[in-house]
Batch of 2 targets.
Target 1
Amino acid sequence: MGTATEPEPKLRGDSAVDPRDQQRGPAVRAMFAGIAGRYDLLNRIISGGRDQAWRRRTVKMAGLTGGERVLDVCCGTGDLALMFAFAKPSPAGVTASDFTPEMVELTAQKAAKAGIAMPLCIADALRLPFADASFDVVSVGYGVRNFQDIDAGLRELARVLRPGGRVAILEATPARGVIGRFANWYINRVVPWVGNRLTRSSHKAYSYLADSIQLFPNADALKQRMEQAGFAKVRYRKLNLGTMAIHVGERS
Ligand SMILES: C[S@@+](CC[C@H](N)C(=O)[O-])C[C@H]1O[C@@H](n2cnc3c(N)ncnc32)[C@H](O)[C@@H]1O
């Protein structure tokens, strides 16, 4: 939503999924099911091969000290969850969850190939099937933007973390200025053109990607919303010329 200082972002509006629709969960799931098989390839292409480095940085900022119970929410094809599993000092275990079965299946295949025993679960991030304070670290890579209700989702992440536990969120962030104009052109024009074609996405998933980034809170606003959801000591680091951000915080 635009404010007195920030104009309403101009959306492409050609995706079958409207990122403003708070009932879009089933449509988002169907959209990700449709692109699951080509999701990794597109990540590598549209990030210029940088996406795994951003996930590595996220693991680093989560600051593992060894023995943590980690939950990766919105795991997709499992790249961030697997990075946590291989991190040093080693966590006690990594659980991965996502509400798209086709994505969870790809995580299962990667974990099996890597010889990692990883508990997997098909679950909506807004209603996680875990008791309060079950985890020491919760991560989300490129998932929060898709939450039907960002604040409810952040509160749910806080609920399953133990007090003092850490959250790490990697997400695209709207950029401003000259770089913002170039980033907007790339995300709004190039990425949908390439992504929708290569995935043959009937939902136009990469148009949704562009529109959902435009509507996502900027890094300062996300920090504030994390604080309101129950996180303290929230800080963030921007990456990729300010077009990505990693936020970390502690469960109060
Ligand atoms: C852009 S992908 C990110 C995947 C992975 N974390 C990564 O780093 O590439 C977003 C994932 O979030 C999942 N997702 C979106 N909304 C969700 C929700 N409310 N609950 C659970 N999973 C959700 C989708 O199914 C999809 O697999």
Note: Residues 25, 28-29, 32, 74-76, 79-80, 98-100, 103, 124-126, 141-143, 146-148 surround S-adenosylmethionine (CB under 6 Å).
Target 2
Amino acid sequence: MPLLNRRDFLRTGLAGSLVLSTTLRAADSPPASRNTTRSGRAKNIIFLVSDGMSLGTLTLAERYLRRHKNRGTRWLGLYDRPDVRRSLMDTSSASSLVTDSAAASSAWGCGHKVKNGSINITPDGLPRPTILQLAREAGRATGLVTTATITHATPAGFAANTAFRGDEAEIATQYLDRRIDVLLGGGTKFFDPSRRKDGRDLFADFRREGYHVARDRAALQNTPADGRLLGVFTEGYLPYDLDHRADDALIASVPRLPEMTRAALDRLSRHEGGFVLQIEGARVDHAAHANDIGGLLHDQLALDEAVGIALDFVANRDDTLVIVASDHGNANPGLNGSGGNFDSRGGSYGDTGKCFERIAEISRTNSWTLSGLNADSTSAQIRARVAEGTGITLIDDEIDLLGRALRKDPSPREGYRVRNSPMITLAQIMANYTSVGWTGVAHTTDHVELAAFGPGSESIRGMVQNTALFGVMTRALGIAAPTSV
Ligand SMILES: [Zn+2]
């Protein structure tokens, strides 16, 4: 199916619909504010996503904080509150029991199951109005915050229509056309004229439409407090939180997720008509794909800080629907009993508690550790680099295993597979020390955690389909969700 440009979008499915015509008209003039705090109605919606968060990830974050900070996660702290609804969510897509982030976010964003890889276009080829377009129509300001590219699947699922999630250059132009008020994340390459195939300078186009454009942390901090904001801080994804905190240059130039969350809430809450904001901890998913326990844990903890900022924001108000969820599981990490962990000399690596303690010694992601190694690395170099990044001193057999993976031995012809990659080989070796094992390297079909409170959350209970959250949000906003377009 060809990509839909704006004209196609108007022509197919939505042409003449009240929703789209008023949405486009509204794009050129700020929506009027209105009283939206009637019973069951929400002035604001804050939707927090940990991308690719299996329950084991949340459990490990909880255990880590209890052990090292003497407190639990803000996320699980919600479960003690009588006003919080907690549910398990079915995440399957129109094309698979195992969703991708595009189909998962689209289910929330338009209320329909779509095929993996597509964003808010149903299997019959129709683009569907998105939650942020509808929110804008209902007088709300809109925002997206992520640690991936701002044009990545999860934020795009609330605001864009495209048959291919990889068409991030197109998604960037749709954000401009649809006047998303706050955009914070990575992905300058999709805005930069020297990197876009069409040569368009989207940074200039956003400025022309009145956006403040921030390209680094200082600019974000110094941006005037009102008006629309595009903040894009890295060429691609933002760094993993663990690597960010270890690098002074990154600390100076790139904001962390909690800082972006605060900036978005500060700005959007000035809009008297209210707002709808999605905040995504995107790299939890990437670390799970890599079976990288250090990267995973610390990006989950960063997302939990963002949850805390959102909870503090709504602490003294009753006009905000807060939803905290994951879009799908990934690789199912879990702390296993360590009785079976023996080293090559027949000794035990230690009890489970000691294994878990080793995670606290990890100072860099496995991506960082492996970025300093290659097929020519010596055993001494492998030992030193792994020790520097993970705090673990490998034994000779393990260095040999990792060295073979770095040399792609066995070769692809002889059975080289993803689980033989250096990344997964290192993760499997580390599992002997940390006792954290993984079921795979990809998304899972597992049900995921969902918690919500505030006006509109009352209907959430038991097991829910991911598509149901679209109705929860549109009802909370006082919008009659379109039954067909
Ligand atoms: Zn993924």
Note: The radius of gyration is 23 Å.
